[in-house]
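As a warm-up, study this chain.
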Amino acid sequence: MKAEILSVGTELLLGDIVNTDAQFLAGELARLGFTVLYHSTVGDNEERLTALLEMALLRSDIVLTTGGLGPTADDLTKEVCAKALGLPLVEDEESMRRIEACFRNRGSEMPETNRKQAYLPQGCTIFRNNHGTAPGCAMEKAGKIIINLPGPPRELKAMFLEQVLPYLSRFAGGTIVSHTVRTFGIGESAMAERAAQFLKQENPTVAPYAKDGEALLRVTAKADSPEEADALCKPTVDALCALYGDLVYGVDVDSLQQVVVQMLRERGMKIGLAESCTAGLIAKRITEIPGSSEVLECGIVSYSNRIKEKILGVSPEIIEKYGVISAETAAEMAVGAWRVSGADIGLGVTGLAGPDGDERGNPAGLSFIALTDGKHTLARTVNTGRGGDNREYNRFVTSSNALDLIRLYLLDER
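Now compare it with the structure written out below.
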């Protein structure tokens, strides 16, 4: 099938932003077996965008657009594409809920202009945006397909690899199989640098991307059958797991908490939690997994110093000397969780989700995590680097670090 990439944004035409989206998409489409005929760039102008889209639909089977899905008046990509195929825009309730939640988690009110992002072409396939407010979509009519993707590379890349690639696979010849190597504790750029030799491969291909504070590698192969494609992937997946060692927490697993619950069950161990800044999020993530009742003894949300002292037995002198946001307080919280729960291990977390820092100069996004089995204590300091701009992100990344600390402890218990 013939494909074309249409990049929308005046900032691209002016050279203010390098168009890495087109480079990424062209490579991925070629690996899928599509013939990419043209890359085109157009500014935020309805007339010129319409003319270019009409031309693209005449010469290509699939048109992928990037950008122009924002909330402002000059974000017109979706509207122009829907009009070209004669499709009305209708509100998608799930998209509206996700957009509202995104602003709510930031602690800000959603502007009315953002409502337009939840209006999508009738009957389209929706691609959820886990990194921003603009959903993507695929619309089909009369043998033509238009796929709208957000412009920010971080949003586009994750959406394409997780949702668009499986959608496009049914139009590609042969069978496509993908495996995801999930890591924690290494950034996307550092991971890509270490895996440079693998990123040059053609079949299977290896694509790194980031998601929710994790770094992932998608290994994709194309063959005549699923078995052949899977056999092509296996040596590369095995080599990547060996390359990253204990940084890899799973292949084709759903989440870090899934792995932690499985490891605890396999070892017949239980855990008690004492959470401050994460406010029960670690417990929530663990209890999302079936069988978690076998491993979670208790979860204590100890937001106030009074509860830390009275329930967990944290020393007032420790809080006075080191502050409530400190490694020392986290360690005492872990001991308290272990003691109160009677579990095999206790975990304590204290930190600042945001939006503000504290009187000791600790910034929002800083947290301290400690784990104890009564004999040994492990500790980790986390600074998300986001400050107070994204309270929900700070809490989630802190909870992921806590789960990863549990995982690494359990690895030593093999």
